[in-house]
Design a protein that fits this description.
Blueprint: E1 24-32, E2 36-40, E3 43-44, E4 49-51, E5 61-69, E6 87-91, H1 98-107, E7 112-116, E8 140-143, H2 145-157, E9 164-169, E10 176-184, E11 200-207, E12 215-221, E13 248-250, E14 253-260, E15 267-273, E16 276-280, E17 290-295, E18 311-314, E19 316-320, E20 331-335, E21 339-346, E22 349-353, E23 359-362, E24 370-379, E25 390-399, E26 402-406, E27 411-415, E28 423-424, E29 429-438, E30 442-445, E31 448-454, E32 462-464, E33 467-469, E34 472-476, E35 485-494, E36 497-509
Parallel strand pairs: 5-6, 6-7, 7-8, 10-14, 11-17, 28-36
Antiparallel strand pairs: 1-10, 2-3, 2-9, 4-8, 5-9, 11-14, 12-13, 12-15, 15-16, 16-20, 18-19, 18-26, 19-23, 21-22, 21-24, 24-25, 25-36, 27-29, 29-30, 29-34, 31-32, 31-35, 33-34, 35-36
């Protein structure tokens, strides 16, 4: 994708449609809440600003600061200048390196640093530490030359007490619009993605990482012309992939996303921390609908999305067994600081145990249809999150020789109203959705579901009454007054198998 230094892109419309072969002109953009706005008098610099690489975040919200022009920004030019707590404005200079400029401004006590570019568009340089990795000590933004020179003229023409900048910053946006359009067989006169309510779906995200952990998030569309569907992290070298939006930090808490919906548009969303990565299935959203995604909160358990489900191919089985799908949602994920073991059995005969990777592979299976079990055990890490302590999942299924077919493994998703600490009310409604993913949307459900809960880490279990509500099964908790934690054991059956999943310390109680 073009870098953020570009403020506009242009495409020449085609006079005629392609009649032989195929042609697709795709437009995709992540339109975020404006990260930085600066205004003075009746002027605003919104479209001319670009926060620089290596810059620490500007202060969230609205602040006001005086502005001082310091030429090329060399240390000697600060002599006699009063810049403490103010915005320093300089021109980009080939004779003064970015690190020298920002170091001089910081030494003089500047609150922020604005660099007027000396070429086309906005500057795009490193203003962090010389190691090329550590962020700098004051926020830095580039200003396009025309608007920057106007600002310099205003500073020179005003009394210091009168020159004030209003700075509005949102370093971690509260909303993005992820937009895509596939223009087939021609480049249209207006290739802009549709943004009317009938073309969008809303996604309510709750990011709940462990205290102090920084989450990076991204989203990727999966057009029909891809050689391989979006599927982080499994698309390999040489496969044709559309470029995903850059992974960017998100603030803990709530964020509302708007995405292009309908018209065959499919999305996959990712979130990661240094020790844990998780992602959704590939989904097509219905316009005007709303979805909810919970990231890194309970309930964490083994969960496969549609493209991970192991396949029976001839006399072998292969696939991926991920252990740490989060949020109780249709997420898959893996973590380096939590452990996973799995084994495949034919009846009671062990066929294979896992190695260090999540890959499952076994060959030379009998041709006839026989019963199999895939058993997965995970252990949590209390230094990362208190939920879960351990999990045990056992999938039961029938399989025989076929050309290529996904195994009918029921996946379990959960929903319960939790606070940011992963705790539910003692009488909360608990929902279960048991289904076999088919391409991320169409699903085959279970015929029967059973729920047991424990309030003593699995020492004793209590069966709950379930009621079918739409596609989900629901029960109301009746937690005793002394209970602090909830463990669950769910069994879902279907004609050719089923699943039992136990999660010790699935979530907490208020």
């Amino acid at each position: 994708m073009p870098s953020a230094a570009y403020d506009s892109l242009w495409a020449l419309p085609t006079r005629h449609r392609v009649t032989e072969g195929s042609f697709v002109f795709t437009t995709r953009i992540r339109a975020k809440q404006t990260p930085l706005k600066i205004a003075y008098g009746r002027h605003d610099l919104d479209q001319s600003l670009l926060v620089q690489h290596g810059s620490p975040p500007f202060v969230e919200g609205i602040t006001r600061a005086g502005a001082v022009f310091i030429g090329s920004g060399s240390a000697g030019e600060y002599s006699g200048a009063r810049v403490r707590g103010k915005a320093v404005v300089v021109r980009r200079s080939a004779s003064v390196a970015p690190q020298e400029q920002v170091a001089a401004a910081h030494a003089a006590g500047a609150a922020m640093f604005l660099v007027v570019n000396d070429g086309d568009g906005r500057g795009d340089e490193w203003y962090g530490a010389p190691d090329g990795n550590t962020t700098g000590q004051i926020p830095v933004a580039s200003i396009a030359m025309d608007h920057g020179e106007q600002l310099i003229a205003a500073i020179r023409g005003a009394r210091p007490a009168d020159m004030k900048l209003e700075v509005e910053a949102h370093p971690l946006p509260h909303y993005p619009y992820d937009l895509v359009d596939y223009h087939r067989q021609a480049v249209p006169d207006d290739p802009s993605a549709a943004t009317d309510p009938g073309s969008l779906a809303r996604i309510e995200n709750d990011f709940e990482p462990p205290a102090g952990a920084q989450v990076l998030e991204s989203r990727e569309d999966s057009p029909a012309y891809e050689f391989w569907p979006a599927g982080y992290p499994y698309a390999g070298f040489g496969m044709v992939r559309v470029p995903p939006f850059s992974r960017e930090p998100v603030a803990a808490g709530h964020r509302t996303d708007w995405v292009s919906a309908g018209r065959g548009i499919k999305w996959q969303q990712y979130a990661s921390m240094p020790t844990w990565a998780t992602f959704t299935d590939i989904q097509e959203f219905v316009p005007r609908t709303s979805q909810h995604q919970r990231w890194f909160g309970p309930i964490t358990r083994p969960r496969m999305v549609s493209f991970e489900i192991p396949h029976r191919i001839g006399n072998g089985v292969g696939g991926t067994v991920a252990g740490f799908g989060d949020g109780g949602a249709a997420h898959s994920g893996d973590a380096s600081v939590m452990s996973r073991e799995f084994a495949l059995y034919q009846g009671d005969r062990l066929l294979v145990r896992n190695g260090p990777s999540p890959d499952l592979s076994v060959v030379d299976l009998p041709k006839r249809v026989l019963p199999y079990r895939l058993v997965v055990d995970t252990k949590g890490n209390p230094d990362l999150t208190p939920y879960p302590k351990v999990t045990h999942t056992e999938w039961r299924f029938l399989s025989g020789e076929v050309d290529d077919e996904a195994l009918p493994l029921l996946q379990l998703d959960y929903d319960v109203d939790l606070d940011s600490a992963g705790r539910a009310a003692r009488n909360a409604v608990f929902s279960i959705l048991a289904a076999v993913p088919r391409g991320g949307t169409a699903r085959e459900s279970s015929s029967a579901v059973r729920l047991e809960v424990s309030y003593d880490d699995g020492a004793t279990w209590h069966q709950q009454d379930l009621r079918k509500t739409g596609a989900a099964w629901q029960a109301r908790l009746h937690a005793p007054g002394a209970a602090r934690l909830v463990s669950i054991r769910v069994t879902a059956d279907r004609r050719d198998g089923g699943v039992t999943q136990t999660v010790i310390r699935a979530f907490g109680l208020k």
